[in-house]
């Protein structure tokens, strides 16, 4: 494990733990502006194909709001597992969402052997760290090996009219190309939705579908 990653992960764990201590089981406790925008992001990710019987990994689960959304919107009865690096978030998730299984886990330092139908990642790649691209790519490689059907994630887009100094904005085409060349040839880029009324789309989602066809580099 790169020591730089570990320093960043430790800092993020502390940051999100403090948010949970301050805001509890709320959208603000997971660094979202409100519940509506938090759930809109999650709804888009679930469109990769999650059904009521799926086995789902919510990576960076916070206090488990993805499980609440799935239960309310599709009558979810499958297996839900949440990983997070903030112990306070996991402790609260276990209390408020007893139907889920929650673990404190740093996937880069503690790889998991378990396989899921879908791996969903909302908001994990948004905070600016030492090397965001390297972190995104390392985590995505790990998570793709755990996704039997598909891997879905979102990121803030560089196609915006405002930049926050503490956040990381990615070129959607770079994320798409990385997934096509290294994870799977079956990739969908979604940059067609708004999470807040009246603002331009400032984030994107990518669906990476598992395939028995090996990905390959683009020849340019």
Topology at a glance:
Blueprint: H1 3-23, H2 35-46, E1 55-59, H3 65-74, E2 79-84, H4 87-96, E3 101-104, E4 116-121, H5 132-144, E5 147-157, E6 169-170, H6 172-182, E7 186-190, E8 203-209
Parallel strand pairs: 1-2, 1-4, 2-3, 4-5, 5-6
Antiparallel strand pairs: 5-8, 7-8
Notes on the structure:
- With about 220 residues, this protein is an alpha/beta fold.
- It has one domain: Rossmann fold.
- Helix content is about 35%, strand content about 20%.
- It has six helices and eight strands; from the N terminus they run ααβαβαββαββαββ.
- The chain has helices at about 5-25, 35-45, 65-75, 85-95, 130-145, 170-180; strands spanning about 55-60, 80-85, 100-105, 115-120, 145-155, 170, 185-190, 205-210.
- Helix 4 (about 85-95) links the parallel strand 2 (about 80-85) and strand 3.
- The longest helix is centred in the N-terminal third of the chain and has 21 residues, at about 5-25.
Number of domains: 1
Order of helices and strands: HHEHEHEEHEEHEE
Gross morphology: globular
CATH superfamily: Vaccinia Virus protein VP39
**Structural class category:** alpha/beta
Mean pLDDT: 91
Helix share bin: 25-40%
CATH A-level architecture: 3-Layer(aba) Sandwich
Q: Count every beta strand, where a strand is a DSSP E run of 2 or more residues.
A: 8
Tell me the number of helical segments per DSSP (H or I, 4 or more residues long): 6
Q: What is the CATH C level class, in words?
A: Alpha Beta
């Amino acid at each position: 494990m790169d020591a730089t990653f570990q320093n960043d992960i430790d800092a993020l764990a502390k940051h999100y733990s403090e948010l949970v201590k301050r805001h509890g089981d709320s959208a603000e406790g997971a660094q979202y502006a409100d519940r509506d925008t938090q759930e809109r992001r999650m709804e888009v990710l679930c469109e990769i194909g999650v059904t009521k019987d799926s086995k789902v990994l919510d990576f960076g689960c916070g206090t488990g709001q993805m499980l609440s959304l799935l239960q309310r919107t599709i009558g979810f009865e499958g297996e839900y597992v949440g990983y997070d690096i903030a112990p306070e978030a996991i402790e609260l998730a276990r209390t408020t969402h007893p139907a889920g299984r929650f673990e404190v886990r740093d996937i880069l330092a503690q790889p998991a052997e378990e396989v899921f139908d879908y791996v969903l990642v909302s908001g994990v790649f948004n905070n600016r760290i030492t090397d965001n691209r390297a972190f995104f790519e390392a985590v995505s490689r790990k998570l793709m090996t755990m996704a039997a059907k598909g891997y879905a994630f979102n990121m803030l887009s560089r196609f915006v009219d405002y930049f926050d100094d503490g956040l990381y904005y990615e070129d959607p085409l770079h994320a798409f190309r990385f997934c096509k060349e290294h994870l799977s040839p079956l990739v969908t880029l979604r940059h067609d939705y708004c999470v807040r009324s009246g603002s331009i789309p400032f984030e994107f989602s990518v669906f990476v579908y598992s395939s028995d066809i090996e990905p390959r580099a683009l020849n340019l």
